[in-house]
Every structure is written in C-alpha cells, then in structure tokens.
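Researcher: We're teaching a course module on how sequence relates to structure. For the next exercise, students receive a sequence and then see the predicted structure as tokens, so they can try to spot secondary structure elements on their own. Here is the exercise chain.
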Amino acid sequence: MKRKFIKNIEWSILICCLILLIIGMVALYSATQEGGNSDLKKQIVWVIISIPIMIGVIIIDYNTIAKISPILYVLFIIALIGVLFTEPINGATSWFQISEWATIQPSEFAKIVFIIFFSYIMVKLQNGDKRETNRFWKLLISVVILAIPVGLILLQPDYGTLMAFLVSYIFMIFVAGVDKKLIIIASIVVVVSVPLAYLYVLPEHAKTRIDVFLNPDLDPRGSGYNVIQSKLAIGSGKLLGMGLLKGNQTQLGYLYPKTTDFIFSVIGEEMGFVIAVLVIITYTMLLTKSIYVAKTAKDDLGSYIAIGITGIFAFHMLENIGMTMGLLPITGVPLPFVSYGGSSLITNFICIGMLLNISARRQKAIFMD
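Model: And here is the predicted structure for the students to work with:
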C-alpha cells in the first residue's frame, strides 16, 4: 500500500515547486543585500516551517481534511473579521502582527480552506449527480459560501486576493458541471458591471491604479513609477541578464517592493530572458500537472480541490508576471514560491501537499463530461 501511495504521487509537481523556490531564493539574495539579507533569512525560516506542514497534509487523507473543513471555514471567517480591527499596513488591514518580524495574513490561508470547504459542500449537494449543481438554491448556497470571505476581504481591502477567490470559484464551478448558459449570462453581467463598478463602486485609489495601468505616463513619479521601473528592469536584462548584484533598478533601490510584488522584475533584470522564461515554463508545467491530478482524482472531491488550487496558482502567476510587465493592473499579488512572504509560502506548500495527497490516492479519471 505504501509503495503504491508513493508511486502514485505526482513528483513532477514537487520538482516544479523546488525549481521556483531555488530561483526565488537566489533573487531574494540579490534583492536584499542592502538589508543584510533579512528577508532571505526569514524566507528560509518559513521554508523550514512549511515543509513539515506539507508532509502532514500529504499523509492525512484529503477526505478527512474535508470533513473538518466546515470548522476551519468558520474559524477563518472569524479571523477575517478580527483582522479588520488591526492597524493598517500599506493602507490595508490584512495582517495580524505576531512579532517584530513576523505577520500572518489570514486571507492567504482562507483561500485553501475555502477551496476544500466549497468542494466538500458541492459533493454533498450533488449527491452523485452533477446536474444537481444547476438547481437555483444549490447555486445560491455556492455563491453565499464565496460571498462571505470575499466580502470581508473587500473591506480590508485586498483586491488581488479577492480575485484569486473568484478565479478558483470559477474553475471549480465549471468542473462541477454548471450549465454553460449560466456561464455566458454571468460573463455578460460581468462585462456590463465592470464600467459601472469603475464609475460608482471603486475607491479613488483603485481607479487611479486602472488609469495608470492604461497609461503609466499619467503619473510617472507617483502611481506609474513602480511599473515604469519594473519594465525598465526587465528590458535591461536582455538575454542573459546583467548579473547577480549588478541590476541597476534592483541594486539602486528603484524597484519597490522588490522582494514581493516585483521579484519577477529582479529575475528579469539580473538573470535575463532565459531564466525568466524558465520561470514561466515551470509554472506552465505546474499548472498542467495540477490539471492532470484533477482529471485523474479518485473522486469528485479530489477533482474539485485540485482544480481550485490550479485556479489559485494560475491567477497568481498570470497577475504577478503580467503586472510587472505592465500588461495587468498592479494588485500586490505575490509570485508563488518566488516572492517573499510567510503566509503566502505556507499556503502554497499546503496547496502542493493537497495536490500530492490527491495524486497519491488516485485510481481513475473522472472527467468524462
């Protein structure tokens, strides 16, 4: 049994994770020279903490984890409420201050809790028949499960994490068998709502980010500064990069924050196009293997969890890399396994643990629709 368990694990997912982690560590080493590599040292500590957590997640059957997900969901809703009463950091109340150097972001952990809980509830509501997904009251329940954490995250505000929730929900509800007509209707509603939200809902700073995204030169010394410096950094790297510790934008302090939001810019400038493309290829491999795990899961629960995690990784990768190139608005979304961040890193390792957990227990493909 143990031999089959180990043999079934999709080890390529772990390999992708390690490649990204190594590249991220090298980038952090270069980006934190003036601060004595403090963020790099902290990141190493978070890796040491994350690995046993990931192993624990792999060992415990994901069905068992799903059974306690209602309790975890309630606890993290309470945490998302509690964090609203903390002191703002960079304009957002998203973190609990644990110590002088450590903060915890509950919305990061809430992503994986939401995915597991939502998958668990969908399986219960379907009762073996995916057509049940399209019953109005069951769809309403799924929307409510999403709306509660999303509403609380909107109050922080943290638009990047909010979008990650929405993308994972779309991935899961699609695989759960929602009627394609409903998807078309929802898409039309979104298209109509976007300009209305821009005019009447979004706060001024969010509107400014969108305006600057469309034209960074509107405020080159203010809101457009970061993306302009990021594009300069990536362009300066050319094919092989300027070399570690030699990037102008990175080492002279023009990139900010270079260890989190703009770590890909550091990679592009100092390691060049070759390593930047390697990062993108590695993420593509990770996403492809995650989808494969979803397709070959032994049950719907495993399939929904795996595809929800795929949605999280896909959004973070596309949004972070896209914003550093000026292709998408800046939202403060970290690059999984590459950006500095304890809560983000632990959550990503939990996601990898869940994927390996599901792959180890798979038996047959279930995507037959």
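Model: If you want an answer key for the exercise: Residues 162 and 201 are 15 Å apart (CA to CA). Confidence is low (pLDDT under 50) at residues 364-369.
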